[in-house]
Amino acid sequence: MTLSTIIEGQTKLVVPDTGKDIGPASKAKIFYNPAMRSNRDITVLFGKAVAKPGWNVLDALGGTGAKGIRLANEIDADLEIQINDLSEDAFQTIKKNIKANKLKNASASNMEFNALLSNSGYEWIEIDPFGSPVKFVDLAVRRTSKGGIMSITATDTAPLCGAKPETCQRRYLARPMKSGCCHEFGLRILVGNTVRRAAVHDYGLEPVLAYYHGHYFRAFFRKKKGARTANASLENIGYVQWDKKKGYSVHESQPKEDYVGPLWTGNLCDSAIVKRMLKHWDESLTKESQKILQNLDSEISQPPYHYHMDEVASLFESPPQKTDSLVDELRKKGFEASGVHYNRKGFRTNAGLTQIKKLFKKR
Fold first, then answer.
1. Domain 3-298, CATH
2. What are the contacts of 28-32 at 24+ separation with CB within 8 A?
3. For the purposes of burial, counting CB atoms within 10 Å of the CB of 155, is it exposed (0-12), middle (13-18) or buried (19 or more)?
4. Are 83 and 65 in contact (CB under 8 A)?
5. Range with the lowest mean pLDDT among 68-82, 191-205, 295-309?
6. Would you place residue 25 in the very low, low, confident or very high pLDDT band (cuts 50, 70, 90)?
7. pTM above 0.85, yes or no
């Protein structure tokens, strides 16, 4: 296996040589994916906005340790970072990265996930597996301190977006929906399932930053202790139904047909945190990470669904319109409306299909 030294953000990283490939180094013994750079950038910004001095942070499935190393090196908050991976090769590479950056606040471990967390607790636990995070969530939420953060990444987009509904039912106990809104629903199924798993242990979870980008879903949660907080979190679990005449609608109980869920119906982001993250952005980070956050900031208070311009135009038997222009028209009519952070043709609004159709006919 050939290793290369690169610079990512303000950090020197020793990683598998992927050549011109932008995906994970799947043939290497150590997992590293250059395409997840925006994920790591946003995680660093989140840490700068939220982490408190003295926090113990665990990067539980570290791979090369890229994310944990960057947190240790780029956040000036006196954090103690532990980077773990079951692979011996990954463990050795993590140690090389610690040494390369002369980090005194980072340590490496080589343990199985459940053994590692059997007797240890942390203020922030980061879970970034290959595929679904569901099998790690229950123990991680129990070992996250009260008021602390648990963050997860999911790359099993096919089940969450409706291409493999049986797998989604099995992993997330939810019914997905194939539509122009499938990524929105996939993200909310992931968040909703995580909240429900925490509630089993009498913990409430508040999503403070959740988004979809490229090929992955990402969510950060703040943990709250007690059955009351768990019950409060569960009040944001519901269903979304599709009707060709009325559009999308939110329900507390399961509809009979054309529905997706259970999923999270509340807000996906804390506006104050997103704004603090944007203030910390600098030129060492990708423009991509900045754009994701800017777009998220504009759609925070919108409904738990959106419409896709091409789908709506087809439904109305009308040519597609410019998304930005339609959003402006909806706002002029007194409706809430915004774009969607991962799709230029997506628009989010509390207007029904009848109101949207009237604006189409005016053009």
1. 3.40.50.150
2. 28/1, 29/1, 29/87, 29/89, 29/90, 30/1, 30/63, 30/64, 30/87, 30/89, 30/90, 30/93, 31/63, 31/64, 31/90, 31/130, 32/63, 32/64, 32/66
3. buried
4. yes
5. 295-309
6. very low
7. yes
- Render pLDDT for 85-100 as a digit per residue (tens, 0 to 9): 999 999 999 999 999 9
Crossing angle for the helix pair 37-50 and 287-298, to the nearest 10 degrees = 60
Backbone angles phi, psi at 57, to 5 degrees: -120, 135
- Exposed/middle/buried for 100, CB within 10 Å: 0-12, 13-18, 19+? middle
Q: In Å, how far are 129, 216, 240, 260, 360 from 166, measured between CA atoms? A: 21, 20, 19, 13, 37
Architecture of domain 307-361: 2-Layer Sandwich (3.30)
With residue 305 as reference, give the H or E element that holds it.
none
For tokens 């009351």, what's the residue?
228
Helices (H), 51-180: 66-74, 88-100, 113-117, 134-143, 157-160, 165-172
Q: Among candidates 162, 186, 131, which has minimal Cα distance to 343?
A: 186
Where in the chain are the domains?
3-298, 307-361
Closest by CA to 57, choosing from 112, 5, 109, 1, is 109
**Which residue matches tokens 């009308």?**
318
pLDDT in tens, 301-355: 778 999 999 999 999 988 888 999 999 999 999 999 999 988 889 999 989 898 9
Q: Are 69 and 135 in contact (CB under 8 A)?
A: no
Strand partners, 14: 5
